[in-house]
Each structure stands twice: as C-alpha cells, then as structure tokens.
Give the backbone structure.
Amino acid sequence: MTGPSRAEYCVIACAEAWRGDGEVLASPMGPIPSIGARLARLTFAPDLLLTDGEALLVRPDGTPEGWLPYREHLAWVTGGRRHVMMGASQIDRFGNQNISCIGDWELPKRQLLGVRGAPANTLNNPTSYWIPRHSRRVFVERVDMVCGVGYDRADGARYHRIPRVVSDLGVFDFATPDRSMRLASLHPGVTVEQVIDATGFELTVPEGVPATREPTDEELRLIREVVDPAGARAREVAA
C-alpha cells in the first residue's frame, strides 16, 4: 500500500473534528469533509449520525437507516446536537466566516453564496471549517461580512464552538487565552513559514508544532476501497 497523500491527511484531519462528539448529527459540506465524516462513523465514532441532506438518516454507504423529519432536524440544530463542517470564502483570527460577498455589502466586488444558514449554525451548534486552498485571500485580518459567528461575537451563545479549521496546509484551533486562531498541526511536507506566509493575520504558533495524525493502514483501506474509491478527495486536494 502506498503512503498517504496530502488529500488523505486532510480527510483524517476532518474526521477528527467529530471525535468524542457521541450521538450528534454530522453535516459535512464538500467532498473531503463528507469522506471524513463517513470514515469517522466507520471507525472511532460509531454513534455519529449521517444524513442525506433531506429527510433520511443514512449509513456510510448511503443506504437509509432512519427518518429525520424537518421539525426534528430543527430541534437538533437549535439544541447543540449537530456538528457542521462548512467552507469559508474568508475567515479571520477569531473564526468569523464569510460566504456572502467580497467587498462592501452595499456594492460588493463579488457576490457569493449568501449568508445561508451560517449564523444559526455557528450560534446553535458546533461548527468546524474546511478550506481546500489556504491563502491570504481566505485567511484575512477582517472578513468583509460576518456570516458564521466567531469567538469575539458569540457572547452568551450557549452552543457556540469552533472545534477546528482544516486547510490543505494544516489544522487550526482556538486554544488561546483570547480565543484567536492557533496552528495545531502541520500536514507532512508543510513548514510553519509556509503557513505564516499564506495567512493574512498574526497566527499563534506554539513551539514544536506536531504533524497531523497519519492515517492507519485500515483507515487508508477504508478511504480508498470503501468510502471514496472514485478518488474525489484528489480532485479537491491534488498534492
């Protein structure tokens, strides 16, 4: 078996976001987060609930295992029993996320997805982020519009939590006194200097940053043969 690719390290890093969550609804957005959630369910998070995005709970292979009516889904969303992994067009040092527009809101340079469910996601249940191309255009000093709510704006939000941010360069968390972003691990082949150069704000960098956890042989087999035999992960992160 060949060694893990950068994309497979990203899958592992995303899967780890759900470690220890217990019976919560996973809502991964994008190929690598989806592969990660399914891998977590098959290995260290057997109680994780997966959804087809509509009205069904599904097994990792996509076959139905339960019904999730919309009213029940909303109860999970507002009660802290869902863990979302979203994307971000911009994210800042405190985890404020933008997916709505680039530039001034009244006359933006670029119109994006719109705010969507980001405020409700971030205030009412844990929300992690996946960013496939780490750059200063994404990791910015100040987001142009706050869609997902960061730690500096979430006072009093009972279920607000940002467990991790995963990019193609490493893993980040907010385990700092002021809840600003910290470099938690580096993917193999990536240096601290590369991450700093690609980040548009001052990032907390502890001494001796560890490497992102390597997938086990069984996890690699599951990724390659069961969860993602078509190789969708490599189309999102090629390295």
About this structure: Residues 6-236 form a domain with the Glutaconate Coenzyme A-transferase fold (CATH 3.40.1080.10). The chain has a mean pLDDT of 94. The chain has one domain: 6-236. The CA atoms of residues 116 and 221 lie 36 Å apart.
